Amino acid sequence: MATHTSTSSSTDTAADTPITNSDETSAYAENDPSLLSGLAQSANLAFEKESVERRVAWALSQLPGPKVVVSDFGLESAALLHLAAQAQSDIPVLLIDTGYLYPETYRYAEQLREALALNLHIYRPSMSSARQEAKFGKLWTQGEQGMQTYRRLNKLEPLKRALLDFSARTWLQESTREAGGDAVEPVVMASGRLRVSPLLDWTAEELGAYLERHGLPTHPLAERGYMRIGDVHAGDRHRAGA
């Protein structure tokens, strides 16, 4: 496990039956935005008929690399991390540690790291939470403008740095529509990269069935009724019925 700081590179693993042909995939390596957009559209059409397992395997073998997984070690994390590790055991997994994660999340991340032998890299904001609060106060209590500053400092800045460190051109995330994810389609362009949400249309029941089928642990806060798990100051807003 690394806390950043440093980088590593990943090795692609081939999947069966690519959705696009090799010439088309090679063309996207030029990182032309219009070509990337076209690849995203093609992938979304194909993904409608593909299982989550094949979505992940195809994304890791066919989309432009390097590739990484960005995980918040929340409710959906074990499923995607297991799927990704099955397809590419050494894929870098990036955790953005805002400094405000639940204690249970830190313990869960360590549990999954050991269970799945994850190539985990932890990124933190350039400005510590203590310094932020001394300088700005509690940003999450300061309305929309405060939350925008909070997200920029604690999430966007370390995420941008992490993706740059790994030269990532494709990244996988755990977003689902049912949990309030912001992705419109499974594959979208984001800041000149492809962002893939293989679990986007999964329900909580499908997620639970996958975890049970593969003997994967659930996040400790799930048993306490949390529907989404982010930072501690979100509190009961992420609990069922809140």
Describe it for me?
With 242 residues, the protein is an alpha/beta fold. 41% of the residues lie in helices and 12% in strands. The chain contains eight helices and seven strands. It has helices spanning 22-28, 33-47, 52-62, 77-87, 103-116, 129-136, 143-165, 204-213; strands spanning 2-3, 67-71, 92-96, 119-123, 170-172, 187-190, 193-196. A seven-stranded mixed β-sheet has the order 1-4-3-2-5-7-6, with helices on both faces. Helix 5 links the parallel strand 3 and strand 4. Helix 3 (52-62) packs across helix 4 (77-87). The radius of gyration is 18 Å and the shape is globular. Mean pLDDT is 82; it is low at 5-30.
Highlighted features:
242 residues, alpha/beta, 8 helices, 12% strand
Task: Provide the low-confidence segments as ranges.
Answer: 5-30
Question: Care to count the β-strands?
Answer: 7
Count of runs of 4 or more consecutive helical residues: 8
Overall helicity: 40-55%
Rounded to an integer in angstroms, the radius of gyration calculated over CA atoms is: 18 Å
SSE blueprint:
Elements lengths: L1 E2 L18 H7 L4 H15 L4 H11 L4 E5 L5 H11 L4 E5 L6 H14 L2 E5 L5 H8 L6 H23 L4 E3 L14 E4 L2 E4 L7 H10 L29
Parallel strand pairs: 1-4, 2-3, 2-5, 3-4, 5-7
Antiparallel strand pairs: 6-7
Helix pairs in contact: 3-4
